Amino acid sequence: MQTDFDFIIAGAGTAGCLLANRLSADPSKRVLLIEAGGKDNYPWIHIPVGYLYCIGNERTDWLYKTEPDAGLNGRTLRYPRGKTLGGCSSINGMIYMRGQARDYDAWAQLAGDDAWSWANCLPDFKQHESHYKLDSYSRNQEKGQSSKKLEDLARFHGADGEWRVEKQRLRWDILDAFAQAAQQAGIPATDDFNQGSNEGVGYFEVNQKSGWRWSTAKAFLRPVCMTRPNFTLWTQAQVAKLVIDKLPDGHLRCSGVEVIKDGQRVVACAGAEVILSAGSIGSPQILQISGIGPGDLLQRHGIVVQHDAPGVGANLQDHLQIRTVFTVQGVKTLNTLANSLWGKSLIGLEYALKRSGPMSMAPSQLGAFTRSDPGQPYPNIEYHVQPLSLDAFGEPLHAFAAFTASVCNLNPSSRGSVAITSPDFKQAPAIAPNYLSTAVDRQVAADSLRLTRAIVSQPALAKYQPQEFKPGVQYQSDAELARLAGDIATTIFHPVGTTRMGPDGDPLAVLDTRLRVRGPGGLIVGLRVVDAGAMPLITSGNTNSPTLMLAEKAARWILADASAASMTGS
């Protein structure tokens, strides 16, 4: 078994797959990609509605749970994280969403590095994007026939990348009516959430290809990486810890990883860099087990402190979604369609013949971004609207016609943590999001529920006679609504920030602005974190594609540093 490489990437998820593609493009660099889960050969990964069978399945999900949360009135939540090739991109909601330009400008300001501004992140989004509206763009350019409309679109979107973006292959009357009601409530219509301001209402675009899920494993590993002789993939191989060496000058160097593969402990050595891409939960856990983290936490678990870094595992941010359900009359919803054998048969037949219909559905189909109250300076909440309802994720659909309008605070001020519970890498860490722990977040929750009611009361929905089933009109005051949010809200699986980047001198910044890990007296040589944990602030929308952008940028820096090192002989 080969154990010497130039680059070792821990985690074949969203960031890891793109990194593997970019780093192995140089045939002189030996790249190892390590995935704790198995191959993505489970059929339900690839059928869009299959997320229902992937989340909560040990074959594809780490099966994490949160700690009891005071903001959720003592409840714990299921906390899915992808455990297969493609990581979360193989089990997520497939929504293509960048966030808002202000997110990245805020990163740049916090980090003191303009590389993270919206203007400098947009090219990285476009680099790997293949947007369906631009399918004819490159051909028309070659013929000198490109239209102004396509030229304008190409300012914001890419045409020739690997990451496919398509329109959804469905529509619902109830969703169209909700969109019209939102416009009547003052939310403008939009057909593109990804040009820097996502304010508006419209159908989400999705990471699918011809009705199939398009994961990062499909986009970046196959077929290119798999045919490169300098690329090695280990699946069912879990990183136990990093190999950290102390250099004569007192600095630390990460020279490799200890991996459990086929029941054996193997040390894989990295000549250039080890890149942690294990996600906002996995990467801080690996760092802490390896002696890089809050000193008191490590000592409590008998781990030698290599570097006392209180920011490792801190700053956890997530989007908490409040689900409201409204019954309707005289309109088709998935509840009534899927609750009969005949309806299920029609759904299956449509997908088999056309790759369309409910089996091609992302978990949410219609989106809206707006302000929770008129005083907000920018859109601070996001709606995910579905033509269905159920008591909880994984539960059966209700027997009556209904739709769900879920709303989340895009910029929560609550902060949580990830902390190891044992020096054993097999033991899940403690995940404590601390949802709704600030008065600001509780007020946004109450205001969001009121706005949902205002939208549903508009004339466009009146003909369907919507009635609030959940939470119930008896809840009206701020205090009632905030407590109610704690009773019914759930995560939409967007954890970020647990190994955040920041400027020199920031004691809680785990990474510098090139995503290199800080250590005693400077940087830990040969170690980066490239995943959503690096984000200092959560983006104003779904987090999968921002993670890809981050990896695109990091890949260039990693290759540039390796090239510079080879030229100097260091």
Automatic annotation (TrEMBL):
PROSITE patterns from the UniProt entry: GMC_OXRED_2
Cofactor: FAD
Residues bound to FAD: 239
Pfam families, alphabetized: GMC_oxred_C, GMC_oxred_N
Keyword Flavoprotein: yes
Keywords: FAD, Flavoprotein
Gene Ontology molecular function: any one: oxidoreductase activity, acting on CH-OH group of donors
Segments forming domain Glucose-methanol-choline oxidoreductase N-terminal: 279-293
Top-level taxon of the source organism: Bacteria
KW Flavoprotein (keyword) present: yes
InterPro entries: FAD/NAD-bd_sf, GMC_OxRdtase, GMC_OxRdtase_N, GMC_OxRtase_C
Family: Belongs to the GMC oxidoreductase family.
Protein name: Choline dehydrogenase, GMC oxidoreductase family
Species of origin: Rhodoferax antarcticus ANT.BR
